[in-house]
């Protein structure tokens, strides 16, 4: 997965909510002064941190040990259920966390160290089959030293460990019995310590009520109603008629709201990338010269200007500029179709009579799949195919559901996205590039989706992962990017801005935050909704 509402009469709010939920009456939706109605394109439910929900701390029903701070650039970490930032030992293999006292879960049970131990132990338990498990595999042990102190022991030095302390903590009782995380009651009945508690859930509607006993103070926004509206155009139309206080939209649809009185368009910077996987096992995409040629022929600027309406930045590697010294500004591909053609000529890819290149009897043709529900991925795929055809490479497009895409990941290209945990270069790039994920039992099927191995990339990623010296880490990441440009395993296209529409209001909000791949109304203006206050 950076709205608000002016004061309104309660009667109007009741009418609006009826319109949103039943479709009856005149669409005049406005929510009450302390209530907001948001529409999302993402299905509701699945609210279990053990299953991987809210890894960046975005879950409104939960708190992590740490949380993010808003503002420009890479966010800082702040204490949440911890009372202070964790204390690492000299080589960052042991991290001690002191916990906040007097905190209760939504069910009234007290929060303590055993809950932290139980949450992380359950994530790592093979019986949970957690999709998040590989993200925490550096944890060798987690133990309660007393009721308010937890120690994490790691298998190796890991300076990026604070990123692993954002995920929500659940009561130990809720995970006392081992079992599949995907089948846990927490998915539909979340029990956390967070600023909101779930009070109603159906396939198309979730209601969050302010937690009056929240340790950080009762949120002033008293109720958030989330509506599942998967179609982009429908969300835009209903937003325009006043049914919602906010939603997320693709860039061009969002642009139609730019001059609408009483509404604002916000583009939040993210490290969320879009790119094309290039499976090594495919006889065409497995050719390293062809991958380099495609990286030079793709017109990233055109895609950002015309498809993303300017809301994005070119991506050549998975490292955005926000990483400062760890970003290598020289690690780019020039937009040079002539160079791309020469590379293919020299490698023996000759133009055939139909203007498609051939080498040793193999046509330069492959399939690119994209999710059929995502119009931005569709448009990027079409633009990529057009650029490839200009140098004699034929790309056939297939719009499919994810369950039909996944089984073909080893042989066919996919327009994919990444940047799930962008708050350190390690969590941004390691699973995308490291060959450890060629092992089918390691991580998600989408980790290292190109199934590519480069020993030099592995070595530098590991050096950066295990170093505690910021300068050494940054240098290693710059080398990774240099090596990658010579041997690319994807065609990265862009880092997206996430675009949101919100109704103008007098709420005072925190600054936006760098967003991960996850987006929707959990993020945007609403990422810190529990901190909103009214203008004096």
Q: What structural keywords apply?
A:
disordered N terminus; 4-stranded antiparallel sheet; 536 residues; globular; Dipeptide-binding Protein, domain 1; 22% strand; 11-stranded mixed sheet; alpha+beta; Dipeptide-binding Protein, domain 3
What features would you describe in this structure?
By secondary structure, the chain is an alpha+beta fold. Among the domains are: 145 residues, Alpha-Beta Complex (Dipeptide-binding Protein, domain 1); 228 residues, Dipeptide-binding Protein, domain 3 (Roll), CATH 3.10.105.10. The chain has 12 helices and 22 strands. Strands 1, 8, 9, 10, 11, 12, 13, 17, 18, 19 and 20 form an 11-stranded mixed beta sheet that branches. A 4-stranded antiparallel beta sheet has the order 4-5-7-6, with helices on one face. Strands 14-15-16 form a 3-stranded antiparallel beta sheet, with no helix packed on it. One of its GO terms (molecular function) is peptide transmembrane transporter activity.
Beta-strand residue percentage:
15-25%
Overall shape: it is globular
Number of strands: 22
What is the CATH topology of one domain?
A: Dipeptide-binding Protein, domain 3
In the CATH hierarchy, the architecture of one domain is Roll
Share of helical residues? 10-25%
The CATH class assignment of one domain is Alpha Beta
Which regions have little confidence, pLDDT < 50, spanning 5+ residues?
1-32
- Count of runs of 4 or more consecutive helical residues: 12
Sketch the major β-sheet: 11 strands, mixed
**Estimated radius of gyration:** 24 Å
